[in-house]
Specification:
The chain is an alpha/beta fold. The chain folds into 2 domains: 2-92 and 204-261, Rossmann fold, CATH 3.40.50; 96-201, 3-Layer(aba) Sandwich (Rossmann fold), CATH 3.40.50. 45% of the residues lie in helices and 19% in strands. It contains 11 helices and 10 strands. The strands form 2 sheets. A 6-stranded mixed sheet has the order 4-3-1-2-9-10, sandwiched between helices. Helix 3 (71-84) links the parallel strand 3 (63-68) and strand 4. The protein starts with a strand and ends with a helix. The structure holds D-glutamic acid. D-glutamic acid binds at residues 7-9, 11, 37-40, 70-72, 113, 116, 144, 180-182.
């Protein structure tokens, strides 16, 4: 049996990368819905349709659980998919609660896609945990485009972020929530722009923890030791990546994520 992990694009590799470290005996299917990326600038109805298509693919590919490694897809489609499909569906969400708890009264900036920012799910979450009205939301859709193009070191992300964050007095913030999985690829750029005491936080640790608990409770954690490293099959909107060059690119993305993981 497999664990299915999907996102609109490469952002979800953040979750895959951490899941492989936490649960190395499992088999993974990683699905990037690149025919439809970005989700964050589309309508709720469109995204629900895309997610449904991915869920059908996952259930047809022997998945015992699916991780929605996309904050946008979780916000608009997770509940509906849980009603429709019988397997556990674990969705990443912006880490607003731990960020508010860790900010000790300083402001919290939540960066996400325009659709996540507009959605009730995030607004309700903020209402629930933000007693002192410390949370601000900002949409950064261009980072998704840059990540998909692999423009990590061209300086474009830095210029874009500098402009988008210029309206915030960053000295007043304690935490910046990376509420879109694509943003993890730019932790180095965020780090350069933010004051040193503003912490970066995202929801992937909590999501992996939850995945592990769910599989454990169902007695479905893989326990057989294999000599090979965790097995992953990569798909782009249903087409499996088999060419050496494509798999090599995935390997390089994992390397980048390993470096980004060190940055907090
Ligand atoms: N990576 C996704 C997220 O976490 C969405 C990016 C997009 O397709 O707009 O929200």
């Amino acid at each position: 049996m497999n664990i299915g992990i999907f996102d609109s694009g490469i952002g979800g590799m953040t979750l895959l990368h951490q899941a492989m470290a936490a649960l190395p005996l499992e088999n993974y299917i990683f699905y990037a819905d690149t025919d439809h990326v970005p989700y964050g600038t589309k309508s709720k109805e469109q995204v629900i349709g895309f997610v449904d298509e991915v869920m059908r693919f996952m259930t047809a590919h022997d998945c015992k659980a699916v991780v929605i490694a996309c904050n946008t897809a979780t916000a608009v489609a997770a509940e509906e998919m849980r009603r429709k499909y019988d397997i556990p569906i674990i969705g990443i969400e912006p880490a607003v609660k731990p960020a508010v708890a860790a900010s000790h009264g300083r402001r919290v900036l939540v960066a996400a896609t325009p659709l996540t920012v507009r959605e009730k799910k995030l607004q309700k979450l903020v209402e629930r945990v933000d007693y002192s009205h410390l949370v601000d939301l900002v949409a950064l859709p261009r980072l998704v485009e840059l990540a998909e193009r692999g423009d990590f070191d061209t300086g474009e992300a830095g210029e874009y972020l500098q402009k988008e964050l210029s309206g915030y007095n960053l000295e007043n913030y304690g935490e910046l929530v990376l509420g879109c999985t694509h943003f993890n690829f730019f932790k180095d750029t965020f780090r350069k722009l933010l004051p040193a005491d503003v912490a970066l936080i995202d929801g992937s640790d909590g999501t992996i923890r939850h995945l592990k608990e769910v599989l454990c409770a169902r007695g479905e954690l893989e326990s057989e030791k294999r000599t090979e490293s965790p097995s992953v099959r990569y798909f782009r909107s249903g087409r499996e990546l088999t060419a050496q060059a494509e798999l090599e690119y995935m390997r390089r993305l994992h390397e980048r994520l390993e470096r980004m993981h060190e940055i907090s």
